[in-house]
Amino acid sequence: MTTKINMLAIDLAKGIFQVCAVSADGALLYNRVMSRTRLA
């Protein structure tokens, strides 16, 4: 089964970013903290 991401939100900051993905039905798929190098 494949889950589709309906919305991807990125909270921009200097060195650490918060990345959040939401499905079409509003369910939170993941919410992760990423460094600048990992996001790139």
Key features of this structure:
three-stranded antiparallel β-sheet; 1 helix; single chain; 40 residues
Helix and strand layout, with pairings?
Elements (H helix, E strand, L loop, with lengths): L6 E5 L4 E7 L5 E8 H4 L1
Antiparallel strand pairs: 1-2, 2-3
State the end-to-end CA separation.
Answer: 28 Å
The overall strand count is 3
Order of helices and strands: EEEH
Question: So what's the overall shape?
Answer: elongated
Number of domains: 1
- Helix content estimate: 10-25%
Runs in which pLDDT lies below 50 for 5 or more consecutive residues are none
Q: How would you sum up the major sheet?
A: 3 strands, antiparallel
Query: Structural class from helices and strands?
Result: mainly beta
pLDDT average, as an integer?
89
Largest beta sheet: strand ordering? 1-2-3
Beta-strand residue percentage: over 45%
Work out the oligomeric state of the chains in this entry: single chain
Tally of helical runs = 1
- Cα-atom radius of gyration: 11 Å
